[in-house]
Specification:
By secondary structure, the protein is an alpha+beta fold. The chain contains 28 helices and 27 strands. The chain folds into six domains: about 120 residues, PAS domain (Beta-Lactamase), CATH 3.30.450.20; about 100 residues, PAS domain (Beta-Lactamase, 2-Layer Sandwich), CATH 3.30.450; about 120 residues, PAS domain (Beta-Lactamase, 2-Layer Sandwich), CATH 3.30.450; about 170 residues, Histidine kinase-like ATPase, C-terminal domain (Heat Shock Protein 90, 2-Layer Sandwich), CATH 3.30.565; about 130 residues, Response regulator (Rossmann fold, 3-Layer(aba) Sandwich); about 130 residues, Four Helix Bundle (Hemerythrin (Met), subunit A) (Up-down Bundle). The strands form five sheets. Strands 16, 17, 18, 19, 20, 21 and 22 form a seven-stranded mixed β-sheet that branches. The chain has a five-stranded antiparallel β-sheet with strand order 2-1-5-4-3, sandwiched between helices. A five-stranded antiparallel β-sheet has the order 7-6-10-9-8. A hairpin with a 4-residue loop joins β1 and β2.
Length: about 900
């Protein structure tokens, strides 16, 4: 029994010794603690780790006693969880200080009854491993932040590593990498043998860059990539490392570039344009393939073998070469240079050249780069167009000549007819004779309206129809239209009303004459085609702001109406509805077409609603800028008596009857009259006689009015006012007359009042311009510079007297104020002219303008407004000087006359 026990004890001792030997020799720290946290076991590695020599220094002591309060408190918390709660701690990373990291495991120690009697701890030093792991994490973070994909595979094609971009692009999760080979997702290696050839190539060349296509393993999407591949051997294991970038955008741009190139190439073919480059000697160094289509030469036949001038035609080679080398010498660009070249088969061809100099990266001139386009077809077409244009201009000229002659041949006798009717009307006639005369006059003016309509349409077609925008009063214009048409409507016993809004501005800016023409035409047609019921014109404001008003004009009637078919053609020229009910109504069919054109020129369009037998409504809307009420104060010259008595007038007219009409009117106005039958006679009379004004016909035998005026102005240097008497109403004709020195014009047939107005205004202007020529210094004008009998027509006190309502003291006060304002204006405006102070001149003109209007000084109406709005961009300095001198001279003359008036009253 003793022997058995002895063997058992020996066996246990050997086991403990073996266990101790193992515990002391394993490269980890092993220790045990009792329930009071005292160490009951430590191995040799634990002692060495913490600097102890013998276990007697450690056993029976706590961590607090061994390592201090801080460490002891920390380990006691962990140990309590193990020994009290029975929970194990496995592989927990812990920093032990001094840069040492360990993996800590702690397990409860139990006796035979499973009661916890302590704990066992194991600590493995993994400081180096942690360093490697942290480095790996850094590298992995860097790789995952790269915009390029990184993939590493074994030599046999199995995947080893993918960074984040590669994983996303290929649709392969990191934990599934081991399932894939490179040929699973890279189309370049469709077969395994392709991959092996690739690896063999890499082993010899180490690195290569190729393009391929990746296939996403989830979506199946394909991504074009550029891959740089390198072969590496690590620990005797071969790896293939690939860095790839997505080149989808580059491929897209390459495709777009290729598409653009193909389009450009196709366009070059279609437009027959070839590009070229030449060196400093003019030898071709580059030539696009299109040249073969254009000239028949291949690029190889031209590059380095031909000069640019070798393709030029013999006829213009010298000229073009000289011009080309001139451009080259100056390093200039050339645009749209046309030249004739010869094809390889000697066919002549027109080329359009554009080119610019070339410089190398150092800025040294190395030649020219350009393009040539075959424009032979365009040249042929251009030649045809030139011929067509010539034929069209010839036709238009013939039409214009016909209209001019027609106008002249009709207006000339019509002037006599209307003039004779006017003269007969001055006689004592029987009532029946007055009726006959009225009908004759109406027919004559109807014929004149037909001519005017034809000419208006011709002006519109020729682009000579120009709107004349001036300030006007809408209410006054509508009242005038009403008075013109009232009697016509009354004669047919139909109701006629003109209704307008009170909120329409008093002063608007536009062409009131042409607007009246449109409204009179629309209303005239309405009255013409209405036998009973009504014709109304309604004018109302539809929109406004601080700068403009939009106004709607609507003409409505209860007349015969129009068919839907005719409504589609109503604006066609010379068009009237083909209906028996219209046959009794005269007209050219031009009125509506002209009205449409005028309204459209004004920025509107005519709307028409009509039903056969139910009447018609026509409307349009126009925008008018707000005008100035000051401009409405101007005296209407057609309503006053003209004082031209004693004026010496030379009437130059080849038609005896026209001379007679003019003579009768001028004689009635008590003018002194002389006559000439053509331009030659007029010149002879001007050599020996003085006239205040010349009335000059245009078309005359021996010498016409244009040639005569040129001689009078240029050779004889006579500045007498000349008024053109013309049957030509085209703008370019009027412009010609004014450009050669004529002062004004009258279109035949003219009204007597128009003739008197023209004579009076031009004679009055001439007197003051003559005075200015004698007095360059405006301030030196003497009291006799403007005579009283001259200034008597320069101002009128009618407006002041109306305002004064019989209060003479008020009139005298206003005249005193005017004298002060006028004197101040003369002085300041002269000084401003000397110092070229345009702004001051404009302000002075604006200030005195209302006073001039109140004084009835109509001769300065246009000039003062020109100065008020003077702009050097549209006027020259001489115009400014002339206008200021004329204004000051006129004001000085009026002041002198006002002083004389005061002295007379005293």
């Amino acid at each position: 029994m003793k022997s058995t026990n002895k063997k058992s004890e020996n066996s246990s001792a050997q086991e403990r010794k073996l266990l101790r030997t193992i515990i002391d020799n394993v490269p980890v720290c092993i220790y045990a603690k009792d329930l009071k946290f005292r160490k009951t076991l430590v191995n040799a590695h634990e002692l060495k780790q913490f600097g102890f020599n013998d276990e007697s220094e450690v056993l029976g002591k706590t961590d607090t006693e061994l390592y201090g309060e801080s460490v002891g408190a920390d380990t006691q918390v962990e140990d309590s969880k193990v020994m009290i709660d029975g929970k194990s701690i496995l592989d927990e990373e812990k920093h032990l200080g001094n840069g040492i990291w360990a993996l800590i495991s702690k397990l409860p120690l139990r006796d035979e009854s499973d009661k916890i009697v302590g704990m066992v701890g194991i600590s493995v030093n993994f400081t180096e491993h942690k360093k490697y792991r942290e480095q790996l994490e850094v590298f992995n973070h860097i790789f995952n932040d790269l915009s390029d994909a990184i993939q590493v595979s074994y030599e046999d094609g199995r995947l080893f590593y993918l960074n984040k971009i590669a994983s996303q692009r290929l649709g392969i999760e990191p934990d599934e990498i081991w399932k894939f080979h490179v040929w699973d997702f890279e189309t370049v290696f469709a077969h395994q043998e392709d991959w092996q050839q690739h690896v063999d190539f890499l082993k010899k060349n180490k690195m290569v860059t190729i393009e391929g296509v990746n296939i996403n393993q989830v979506t199946g999407d394909t991504i074009p990539v550029e891959v740089t591949v390198k072969y590496l051997v690590i620990n005797e294991t071969g790896f293939v490392v690939a860095t790839s970038r997505d080149i989808s955008e580059r491929r897209k741009h390459e495709l777009e570039l290729q598409s653009s190139y193909e389009r450009l190439n196709e366009l070059s073919k279609q437009s027959k344009t070839f590009a070229w480059e030449i060196d400093t000697n003019g030898t071709f160094t580059f030539m696009s393939p299109i040249v073969e289509i254009v000239l028949g030469y291949t690029p190889a036949e031209m590059i380095g073998k031909m000069h640019f001038y070798d393709i030029l035609s013999i006829d213009n080679r010298t000229k073009v070469t000289k011009e080309a080398f001139g451009i080259i010498a100056d390093r200039k660009e050339a645009f749209n240079y046309e030249k004739v070249a010869l094809c390889k088969d000697n066919t002549p061809i027109w080329l359009l050249t554009n080119c610019a100099p070339m410089y190398n990266e150092k800025g040294v001139y190395i030649g020219y780069r350009g393009s040539d386009t075959d424009i032979s077809e365009q040249k042929k077409l251009q030649s045809k167009l030139e011929k067509a244009r010539f034929d069209a201009e010839k036709s238009a000229k013939a039409k214009e000549l016909f209209l001019t002659n027609m106008s002249h041949e009709i207006r000339t006798p019509l002037n006599v007819i209307i003039g004779m009717i006017r003269e007969i009307g001055k006689e004592n006639l029987l009532k029946s004779q007055q009726t006959y005369l009225k009908h004759a006059e109406s027919s004559a003016y109807h014929l004149l309206s037909i001519i005017n309509n034809v000419l208006d349409m011709s002006k519109i077609e020729a682009g000579e129809f120009v709107l004349d925008h001036k300030d006007f009063n809408m209410s006054a214009m509508l009242s005038n239209i009403g008075s013109i048409l009232k009697s016509r409507a009354s004669s047919k016993k139909i109701n006629f009303d003109v209704v307008s809004n009170d909120n329409i501005a008093r002063a608007l800016r536009g062409d009131s004459l042409r607007l009246s023409q449109v409204l009179i035409n629309l209303l005239g047609n309405a009255i013409k085609f209405t036998d009973q019921g009504f014709v109304n014109l309604t004018v109302r404001l539809v929109e406004e702001n601080a700068e403009y008003q939009k106004i709607r004009f609507e003409v409505s009637d209860s007349g015969i109406g129009m068919s839907e078919e005719f409504l589609n053609n109503i604006f066609n020229k010379f068009t009237q509805e083909n209906d028996h009910s219209n046959r009794s109504h005269e007209g050219t069919g031009l009125g509506m077409s002209i009205s449409k054109e005028i309204v459209e020129l004004m920025g509107g369009s005519i709307e028409i609603a009509s039903e056969k037998g139910r009447g018609t409504s026509m409307a349009f809307e126009l925008i008018f800028m707000l005008g100035s009420e000051d401009n409405l104060i101007r005296i209407d010259r057609t309503t006053r008596n003209f004082d031209i008595s004693g004026t010496k007038v030379l009437v130059v007219e080849d038609n005896e009857m026209n001379r007679f009409i003019a003579h009768q009117s001028l004689m009635q106005a008590k003018c002194v009259i002389d006559e000439a039958g053509n331009g030659l006679e007029a010149i002879e009379k001007l050599k020996t006689n003085h006239y205040d004004i010349v009335l000059m016909d245009i078309q005359m035998p021996e010498m016409d009015g244009v040639e005569a005026t040129k001689i009078i102005r240029n050779d004889m240097n006579i500045q007498v006012p000349i008024i053109a008497l013309t049957a030509n109403a085209f703008k370019h004709d009027i412009d010609l007359y004014l450009s050669i020195g004529m002062d004004d014009f009258l279109i035949k047939p003219y009204k007597e009042e128009e003739l008197f107005s023209k004579i009076e205004s031009n004679c009055r202007l001439e007197k003051h311009q003559t005075q200015l020529a004698k007095n360059d210094d405006v301030q030196s004008i003497h009291s006799d510079s403007v005579q009283s009998n001259e200034t008597g027509v320069l101002y009128k006190l009618d407006q002041l007297q109306i305002i004064a309502n019989g209060d003479q003291k008020f009139v005298d006060t206003m005249l005193d104020m005017f004298e002060k304002i006028a004197s101040d204006t003369i002085f300041k405006m002269s000084n401003a002219l000397v110092s070229s102070d345009i702004d001051s001149i404009k302000q002075l003109a604006h200030k005195i303008k209302p006073s001039l209007d109140n004084m009835g000084i109509t001769i300065l109406y246009d000039d003062i407004r020109t100065l008020e709005n003077f702009n050097l961009k549209t006027n020259c300095p001489d115009t400014l000087r002339q206008k200021v001198q004329f204004v000051n001279a006129t004001l000085s003359g009026i002041l002198i006359d006002l002083q004389k008036r005061k002295q007379t009253n005293l």
